[in-house]
Amino acid sequence: MALAYAERHLPRSPLLLFYGDDFADFIATFEPARDLAYLPDVIRLEAARGHAYHAADAVPLDPAALAQVPSDRLPDLVFSPHPSLSILSSIHPVATIWAMNGGGLEPGPIKPWTGETALVVRPRLLVDVLRLEPAEAAFLQALAGGATLGAAAEDASALRGFDLAAALVRLLQSGAFTAIRKDNTNGH
């Protein structure tokens, strides 16, 4: 597969970091890999890991910073995503497949075979891949997209199993954010 890709896709830049960013799209249409429908998303996850590894260093947000914010101002907070952060949603259990192949989980049958969302981030020296529950993923995507904490929580609360406190703690512990600021667009 890699040889077929390399023969058809010459590097366009001397920076090899980005060479292969379209490898997953190539594999999605590569006839010999037709029966491995999950493979392009696993490749996308691995590419996200490479980008995270080479992203700018940034100090993760200290969760104690939230304790300094008055409770009536919490809904207006906007979180700055870590430069290494990426979110990969798949119709396949991509984080589980990746973990089984990377030694993080014991290989075995995956049941049920359901879609997963992976958070990829390098808050310190190592790149982390975390599987997110659907509500957590929606919450993170909203926050990373610039939504206020209040708006992201309200939208995610409509999803089954959403626990604001647990999701916020998990995301802060992951190092997904570097800073918080007050949203000034709502007149406060």
Please outline the helices and strands:
Blueprint: H1 2-8, H2 23-28, H3 39-54, E1 77-81, E2 86-90, H4 94-102, E3 116-121, E4 128-132, H5 134-144, H6 149-157, H7 164-174, E5 177-182
Antiparallel strand pairs: 1-5, 2-3, 3-4
Helix pairs in contact: 3-4, 5-6
Q: What can you tell me about this protein's structure?
A:
The protein is of the alpha+beta class and 188 residues long. It is 37% helix and 14% strand. The protein is built from 7 helices and 5 strands. The protein has helices at 2-8, 23-28, 39-54, 94-102, 134-144, 149-157, 164-174; strands spanning 77-81, 86-90, 116-121, 128-132, 177-182. It has a 3-stranded antiparallel beta sheet with strand order 2-3-4. The protein has a two-stranded antiparallel sheet with strand order 1-5. The longest helix has 16 residues, at 39-54. It is globular and about 60 Å long. The N and C termini lie far apart (55 Å).
